[in-house]
Amino acid sequence: MKIRKILRKCFLWAVAVLGICLLSGCFPGFNSRDEVMAYLKKKYPDRQIVLSQKYKTRRGLMEDWRIWSFTLSGNPKDTFQVASHIKSYPVPMLKTERSIFDNFEKVVVLRRSREFEQGPLRTLDAPTRRLWHSFSSSEFWLKPLYIDLETVDDVWRAKHLIDLFEQFLSEEIVESDTRYFLRMYIQGPCYALTPTSDSINFVSGLTIAKPGEKRPYYIQFQIYNQINRQVVCQQFYNEVMSYYQLMAAQGNGVNAINMQAWAEDYLQQVARLPSATPRERDTLETSLGIKDKGDGFLFIDTGQKPYMFVYSSERKEGSEKTIFFTYPQLRSFCQQSGLQVKGAGNHFSVTSIDGHRYEFSTTFYIKGKDEFDFDDYTCYYLRDGQKVVMEDIWSPQECIDDALIRRITGRDVKSMVVHTADKQ
């Protein structure tokens, strides 16, 4: 009871102090019209400014607004808004932060986008035009433009579309803050190694969609400001291709032909690294994803096209690198090797060359706790019905090692590595 009384008194004192502050003007008021005009003159020098006498005022629990409209010489088609804004953070009603800002860029971008739709957009082919959607916005801020891609070819269509619009926009805004999100919902299968959400990420760009969206997973990259759009789009393209390689599947326009073309181009880009300048090397490593993924990904030639994109790493420091397959890749490789395979990429069985029956499943794991009491998963497979634990699985890519692959198929995948110096 004593604690309750103390808390009640503290609350009443807080309300009283707040009321006194509100009545005595402790909190900042709106900027004056002269202050707003000074802000505009500083931001837009050498421009004629007409600021309205009238304004609108809005008040809320967290923020207050006073908004004027204004025009600028050189922009006869546009009417802009400028606001004196007061907000409270983090405590409601304690409005202590005051600022002035305007929506010049939002107004110009929206107008130019409408003009773009009536002009340059109409000159593009139908597959590129369908990617365009009008910008949306709030009163003062422009929202990002989401571009949904269906196929890998759409990646380059989107780049061309953005390049064209940014060039059109630059005639009035030299450096804009427009943002674009390239998003591709995955059409093919997505097999998780364990039931935790982070294990689903076979590629770094894969995101779990919200309930009700088109598909469960998507890949998304952002383009903004002066970022290198070529590099970002190449990263996006690489993520899609590597995803379908690791899933041993096709979808979103990915097929054997463009997958092989991607592999050959990837190897050619890697071959350029030793002779590249530091700046060129940085750009190449970024677009290839080497900085994010290390140098652990390589291609092997199984005798059938396309080449397989596989993971390679040292299990122990200084030891020989081990090549790993994902579950779907092992299933596909066994089929290519002429073995009897039953089931899908997330759960299948295969009879090895020496007659043993192996069974693999993403549900074959033992859940436990590590030394810090975090969830820990130990994966296993079945050999003639008996559990065989797979030690030191650190990622979905690092699953089936080359020694086990050789026992099952009789094939040495290390001898299949395609080196960048090989003729394509």
UniProtKB/TrEMBL annotation:
Organism of origin: Alloprevotella tannerae
Protein name stated in the entry: Lipoprotein
**PROSITE patterns the UniProt entry points to:** PROKAR_LIPOPROTEIN (PS51257)
